[in-house]
Description:
Layout: E1 2-7, E2 16-21, E3 30-40, H1 42-48, E4 63-64, E5 68-76, E6 88-92, E7 103-107, E8 111-113, H2 120-123, H3 126-140, E9 147-151, H4 156-167, E10 171-176, H5 181-186, E11 190-193, H6 199-202, E12 209-212, H7 216-222, E13 232-234, E14 246-247, H8 254-265, E15 273-278, H9 282-290, E16 297-301
Parallel strand pairs: 9-10, 9-12, 10-11, 12-13, 13-14, 15-16
Antiparallel strand pairs: 1-2, 1-4, 3-5, 3-7, 3-16, 5-6, 6-8
Amino acid sequence: MGQAWGFSRFGGPEVQEFFERPDPAPGPGEVLIRVDVAGVNPLDHLVRAGLVPGLDGGRPFPRVLGMEAAGTVLALGEDVDGFEVGDAVFGFALTGGGTYAETTVLSAPNTARVPEGLSATVAATLPVAGTTAVDALDQLGLPAGATLLVNGVGGGVGLAVARLAAARGLRVVGTGSAAKREQAEAVGVRFVDYTTEDVGELVAGGLDGIVDLVGGTSLRAVAPLAREPRDVIAVGDQSVAELGGRFVERRLGRENLARAARLALDGVLPPVITAVHPLPDAPAALATVENGHAAGKVVVKVT
Length: 303
């Protein structure tokens, strides 16, 4: 039996609980891993709230929280190629296994080997934040010298977008609350405190592209600043299409994971990890992200 942290029904933080469970058996297309580190993301509390039903795998309650992890392969399900027991891997728990646990199952097509020299802590941040940054910037395809706005730059995804954009030679402007300024400026962002400054005044000539991580009224406020509506890419708000923009096209497969890992290993896409919590402290880790207070990437170190 191993410890896991999850939720007993759909709802808010009050439905979360620690519980014991046997190691899950890997089904077809799954790998069982011993979890070393799990990444924490806003998506986790959305799944807990029942807002993303396609990611629960139809598993019974209690369900384990978490969508990304790095660890060591313990067993392989049927029809799994490219891995062996003992491999260090990282990837997505897209079949509902969760990752805030001592062991879990990852979707094999959405899992990759951790390259030598890359830590499990860094690898665990890449499936969500790292590949989202790669996907959004590839979709925009801006040339060096272009100006990009990262709307909501302070979190794990926003800082990953900013780091990768700067490496591609883009001028990066980012919005956020005052608490996010230090981390954003440390990666070369021209930071705009949305509570006291007007980003429109700073970029009066227009923007070559926008990556939005906030959505809602904030997205609607900044979208008109783009010279071309289609150059607004939203990561969380699919209503961006109503504004003429596009929702990010996600590539979750092994090839894109490996690409993100290479970029991290080469120093192009190093995550800004601001908090590492042990598994017993997972409630505080998710609360920080859910409340919007995370200035960077938060992870849970399991082993």
